[in-house]
Amino acid sequence: ISFKFQEAEQREIKTTLDLNIPENLEISPIDMTIILGNLLDNAIEAASEVKESPYIDVKIKYDKGRLFLQVKNPYVGEVIEKDGRFITTKNDRENHGIGLDSVAKVVLKYDGTMSVDYSDNIFSVAVLMYVD
Questions:
Q1: Considering only Cβ atoms within 10 Å of each terminal Cβ, which end of the chain, N or C, has fewer?
Q2: What is d(CA 110, CA 51) in angstroms, rounded to the nearest whole number?
Q3: CA 55 to CA 51: how far, in whole Å?
Q4: In the chain, what are the helix, strand and coil shares in percent, each to the nearest 5?
Q5: Residue 52 CB contacts under 8 Å (≥ 6 apart), including other chains
């Protein structure tokens, strides 16, 4: 998170983190990296296009076996969703556009759910996973 927030701040994107988790969570570091890496990369890219007050809001909370994670950021332009999948707006579609699918696969591994909302030019991904 620190590494990604550093990148965001270099692009003059305000970052906030609301973190409340125990020191040891039963989730693979690789899985957590897939989730946070993809969501933060997407958020940084989208927020860097916003002219006025770009930000990234991250919440990660743990309570009684449930891990809740949310990444929120403003965006400009159009979000393209087709058959429940989000289509990349990058020119190189062959090598992009798999980030949210990767996150969804990890979330399923933990019997979790992922919801995406993109109303009022705010893109929000919320993840709920069951971990001990």
A1: C
A2: 37
A3: 11
A4: 30, 35, 35
A5: none
In tens, the pLDDT along 32-53 reads 999 999 999 999 999 999 999 9
Closest CA to 105 of 48, 31, 17, 16: 31
pLDDT in tens, 66-112: 999 999 999 998 776 666 666 655 554 444 446 789 999 999 999 99
> What whole-number distance in Å separates Cα of residue 117 and Cα of residue 74?
11
Question: What angle (nearest 5°) sits at the alpha carbon of residue 35, between those of residues 31 and 39?
Answer: 165
Q: And the tokens for 77?
A: 């332009």
Tell me how far CA of residue 104 lies from CA of 23, 49, 79, in angstroms: 24, 25, 18
76: its two tokens: 């400009």
Q: Is the pTM of this model over 0.70?
A: yes
